[in-house]
Amino acid sequence: MQEPLLGAEGPDYDTFPEKPPPSPRETTRLGALQNKRVFLATFAAVLGNFSFGYALVYTSPVIPALEHSLDPNLSLTKTQASWFGSVFTLGAAAGGLSAMVLNDLLGRKLSIMCSAVPSAAGYALMAGAHGLWMLLLGRTLTGFAGGLTAACIPVYVSEIAPAGVRGALGATPQLMAVFGSLSLYALGLLLPWRWLAVAGEGPVLVMILLLGFMPNSPRFLLSRGRDSEALQALAWLRGADADIRWEFEQIQDNVRRQSSHLSWAEARDPHMYRPIVIALLMRFLQQLTGITPILVYLQSIFDSTAVLLPPEDDAAIVGAVRLLSVLIAALTMDLAGRKALLFVSGYAMGWGPITWLLMSEILPLRARGVASGLCVLVSWLTAFALTKSFLLVVNAFGLQAPFFFFAAVCSVNLAFTGCCVPETKGRSLEQIESFFRSSRRSFRR
Predict the structure, then answer these.
(1) With the C-alpha atoms ordered 59, 60, 64, 70, is the resulting torsion angle positive or negative?
(2) How far apart are CA 91 and CA 294, in angstroms?
(3) Concatenated DSSP letters for 90-107?
(4) Is 378 helix (H, G, I), strand (E, B) or coil?
């Protein structure tokens, strides 16, 4: 029988010292101002998620407009519309694949900044499009940027945030993605489709300017042997008055234990593959809830129903409700816990923001860059299959058929949450990794 965690010794358990100095969570309670630089760095990074959310739903008002376009080079058939809606997810899958290399090669911050190039180019192509190929290429490039940021930003935010506010900050990528979608819906009421693409360039430029002044992840810097830079980065993030010695030593010890490259033999160790499998299944099941095709074709879905309001108004209302729900999740997940929200809330409060946060929390450091990219790849390949087939299924069997399938998947998600997902509330990344290493079913204090 395994010995209790308390009082145990050895490298696997050193994240629970008998008399630890004040934890990051306790330090955070002294005032939010002490974390103001963490908030600034997080905001700079999640502007990439704003652009991702904006680009994801760009087709919602644009497809109806192009289906009735008088320009024969831009008028879309149903098949062309399905490609215009779904090709974004193929780009996102390619972005996730590239993140498997870039996340650990360039670091989290530089990888996020690199996403600005395909994003800006994609918006420019769609704004000046005079043929279907420009629309498809623009969607693919913005999708590539979105997939890259989806893999890198949650990791960056989780690695710079103190444990006490990591839940709230970990929800900001999803919060900003939803805000980006809402902004697109709102601007769609005012601007023609070309100017919607022009407006998408703004957040990309602001992200580049702000991120240029932000530090890289201390954990990434330590993994590259840049200890002095890592110490400076952590000191900048925590503020001049913070005592960072204990936190820095914990991170340093964890990085030192995992400084070698991951071998295939080690990858078969349960403490390594269990969190990766859980993260992959969360990303797969999240997409199977149907959120991506629903958002991509939201205005067209409302157009085929007997709702009272115009479809573009309905889409904007959905965006506002999603934003409010994610905001509530961000404010409550450090109090209620991750699993509780996964059980009792809808997508925007649970499986939307929390699965991204949990992915960045539970993945082991040595595999975090590659595994997060793999999760995004699986996520967006699943999204492509659903988005490409959605309109075809609706035309063949009616709108109710895909929604019955999505409801069945949600039931599976409840069972998966109960038996496989750990509660990470209030735990440092080192404690979470120690939990998987010890093969326990739950955390002990």
Answers:
(1) negative
(2) 18
(3) HHHHHHHHHHHHHHHHT-
(4) helix
pLDDT value, residue 256: 78
Q: Token digits for 364? A: 């082991």
Report the alpha-carbon distance of residue 439 to residue 441 in Å, rounded: 7
Q: What is d(CA 126, CA 132) in angstroms, rounded to the nearest whole number?
A: 9
Distant-in-sequence, close-in-space partners of 329: CB < 8 Å, separation ≥ 6 = 171, 174, 341, 345, 348, 349, 350, 352, 353, 354
User: Given this model, what pLDDT does residue 164 score?
Assistant: 75
Q: Exposure of 297 by Cβ count < 10 A (0-12 exposed, 13-18 middle, 19+ buried)? A: buried
pTM: predicted TM-score of the whole model, two decimal places: 0.75
Please provide residue 62's backbone torsions phi and psi, each rounded to the nearest 5 degrees: -80, -40
What's the number of CA atoms in the CB half-sphere (13 Å) around residue 265? 0
Buried residues in 39-60 as b, exposed as e (16+ CB within 10 A): bebbbbbbbbbbbbbbbbbbbb
Question: Which residues touch 50 (CB under 8 Å, ≥6 apart)?
Answer: 176, 177, 179, 180, 183, 203
User: Rounded to an integer, what distance in angstroms lies between the CA atom of residue 196 and that of residue 61?
Assistant: 10
| Angstrom distance (rounded) from CA 120 to CA 199 | 11
Structure tokens at 417: 């949450």
The residue count for the chain: 445
> CA-CA distance, 276 to 51, in Å (whole number)?
27
What b/e sequence results for 158-181 when a residue is b if at least 16 CB atoms lie within 10 Å of its CB, and e otherwise?
bbbbbbbbbbbbbbbbbbbbbbbb
Q: Which two tokens stand for residue 387?
A: 């988005």
Chain segment 136-183, per-residue pLDDT in tens = 999 999 999 998 998 889 889 988 888 777 777 877 888 899 899 989
Q: What is the mean pLDDT of each run of 10 residues along the chain (445 residues)?
A: 40 44 49 72 93 91 86 86 89 87 86 94 94 93 92 87 78 87 90 93 94 90 87 86 81 74 66 85 90 86 81 85 84 79 76 79 76 83 90 88 92 88 79 74 48
- Summarised one tens digit per residue, pLDDT across range 357-402 is 788 788 887 777 678 778 888 888 898 999 888 988 988 898 899 9
Query: Which are the contacts of 305, defined by CB distance < 8 A and separation ≥ 6?
Result: 399
Within a 10 A sphere around the Cβ of 217, how many other Cβ atoms? 25
Q: What CA–CA distance (Å, rounded) separates 408 from 390?
A: 16
Q: Which amino acid is at 18?
A: E
